[in-house]
């Protein structure tokens, strides 16, 4: 059974579904990591792809780490601490770097619990939409460990330092409505409407010129860690490219024609 399912529709919307119900879509194992990375790479490399929707199969988005594979000698955890460090760098830490490098926007359709690394996986996405049954927890501290997958960098950027500290230091669950209130998600919908809502948003993004969408996504990501002068310089370079695309000239012609009809 494939651990990750990927399907592209006629609008260029790529739906990637985590598909490991036995572990509630845990993402700490190397096979799941490799499968997800391959699906992301394939989508990003396909010029027909416009937007990615990431969701979980079954009743959970992702349980994060597989508790049954956390004893020394299993999964990421080696009997030698130095090897455990290497396992993280060559394993789960490849995910945030891959999401950071993507050109396609990613919408997380959070269909149930997103716990630990599962919560951080939603944070790697550009937009998060939650079903009413969604729950989030930065729960590493309850296991006596820390966010080893980049969560300490990701979570404060979504909810602010104080709320991120509260979540990470308590490990408490945050329900869908609270997630909306603190800015962890951009909207909450009924579970039955979740995927269609995410795909409807994806179609609105996909309707825009694809080069502009990809460059806007990259610019937003780069701006997180850059100074204003650096962002302005990058914006000028990207704008120079955008002004010379066929999409730009076609959009300009449509708008000018529309203004002419309104005179």
What is the β-strand count? Answer: 9
Give the mean pLDDT.
Answer: 92
Order of adjacent strands in the largest pleated sheet: 1-2-3-4-6-9
Characterize the overall form.
globular
**Number of helical regions:** 11
Structure, briefly:
With 263 residues, this protein is of the alpha/beta class. It contains 11 helices and 9 strands.
Summarize the helices and strands and which ones pair or pack:
Elements: E1 4-8, E2 13-18, H1 30-45, E3 51-56, H2 81-90, H3 94-101, E4 106-110, E5 113-115, H4 117-124, E6 127-131, E7 135-137, H5 151-159, H6 161-170, E8 174-175, H7 176-181, E9 187-189, H8 194-206, H9 210-223, H10 228-242, H11 246-262
Parallel strand pairs: 2-3, 3-4, 4-6, 5-7, 6-9
Antiparallel strand pairs: 1-2, 7-8
Can you give a write-up of this model?
The protein is of the alpha/beta class and 263 residues long. It has helices spanning 30-45, 81-90, 94-101, 117-124, 151-159, 161-170, 176-181, 194-206, 210-223, 228-242, 246-262; strands at residues 4-8, 13-18, 51-56, 106-110, 113-115, 127-131, 135-137, 174-175, 187-189. The strands form two sheets. Strands 1-2-3-4-6-9 form a six-stranded mixed β-sheet, sandwiched between helices. It has a three-stranded mixed β-sheet with strand order 5-7-8. Strand 2, helix 1 and strand 3 (51-56) form a beta-alpha-beta unit. Helix 4 crosses helix 5 (151-159), helix 5 crosses helix 6 (161-170) and helix 9 (210-223) packs antiparallel against helix 10. The longest helix is centred in the last third of the chain and has 17 residues, at 246-262. It is globular. The model has no long low-confidence stretch (mean pLDDT 92).
């Amino acid at each position: 059974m494939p651990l990750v399912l990927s399907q592209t529709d006629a609008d260029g919307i790529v739906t990637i579904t985590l598909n490991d119900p036995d572990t509630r879509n845990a993402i700490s194992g190397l096979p799941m990591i490799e499968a997800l990375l391959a699906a992301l790479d394939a989508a990003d490399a396909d010029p027909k792809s416009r937007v990615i929707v990431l969701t979980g199969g079954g009743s959970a988005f992702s349980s994060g780490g597989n508790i049954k594979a956390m004893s020394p000698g299993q999964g990421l955890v080696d009997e030698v601490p130095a090897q455990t460090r290497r396992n993280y760098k060559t394993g789960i830490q490849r995910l945030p770097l891959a999401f950071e490098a993507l050109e396609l926007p990613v919408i997380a359709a959070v269909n149930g619990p997103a716990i630990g690394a599962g919560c951080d996986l939603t944070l790697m996405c550009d937009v998060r939409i939650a079903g009413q049954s969604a729950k989030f927890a930065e729960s590493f501290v309850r296991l006596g460990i820390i966010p080893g997958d980049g969560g300490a960098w990701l979570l404060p950027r979504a909810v602010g330092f104080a709320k991120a500290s509260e979540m990470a230091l308590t490990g408490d669950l945050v329900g869908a409505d609270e997630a909306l209130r603190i800015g962890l998600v951009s909207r909450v919908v009924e579970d039955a409407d979740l995927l269609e809502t995410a795909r409807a948003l994806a179609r609105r993004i996909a309707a825009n010129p694809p080069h502009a969408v990809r460059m806007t996504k990259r610019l937003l990501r780069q701006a997180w860690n850059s100074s204003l002068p650096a962002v302005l310089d990058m914006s000028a370079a990207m704008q120079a490219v955008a002004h010379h695309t066929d999409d730009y000239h076609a959009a300009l012609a449509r708008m000018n024609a529309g203004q002419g009809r309104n005179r």
